[in-house]
Design goal:
binds zinc ion, mainly beta, two-stranded antiparallel sheet, 60% strand, 1 helix, 60s Ribosomal Protein L30, Chain: A, globular
Length: 145
């Protein structure tokens, strides 16, 4: 069943991530420091290397690909909600190599920032909590009734 809740835009943060930092870790720490529990993130920039995931729907597990070369972040889009009582960022990314070839997937830890400019929209409203979902075996949002 399709489910949704109304959310309330509160504020927007814009900034740059530290050179050499882990992209997801750095954004998550920002959410913890700023007490952000619900939101949206977008970013552009470049990574020194990255690990991206593809969810194998048959096997019900992520397959990860390590890409050990510099790439442009042509688009990163993600959301912030709560998992295991902490802010959790779920982000997908499209990257381009020096020839302009694109690759993309689910952002895993190990994305090392070369430069990254982000915009983070902070929302208020109901708590969005990730819980185990039986039909996908993923941690998806479970809404309070
Ligand atoms: Zn994903």
């Amino acid at each position: 069943m399709t489910k949704w809740k109304q959310i309330i835009p509160q504020r927007t943060i814009m900034g740059t991530l530290k050179h050499g930092s882990d992209l997801l870790e750095e954004l998550t720490q920002l959410c913890v420091r700023e007490n952000i529990t619900l939101g949206r993130v977008q970013a552009i920039g470049a990574v020194q290397k990255i690990t991206i995931g593809f969810y194998d729907q048959e096997r019900r597990e992520y397959r990860f690909q390590n890409i050990g070369q510099p790439l442009e972040i042509t688009n990163l889009i993600g959301n912030i909600s709560i998992k295991d009582d902490k802010p959790f960022i779920h982000a997908h990314i499209t990257l381009a190599d020096e020839e302009g070839n694109a690759i993309g997937g689910h952002v895993a830890s190990g994305a090392i920032v070369f430069a990254c400019e982000f915009i983070l929209e902070v929302y208020g409203g109901p708590v969005f909590t990730r819980c185990f979902d039986e039909s996908t075996e993923l941690a998806l949002w479970r809404f309070p009734d």
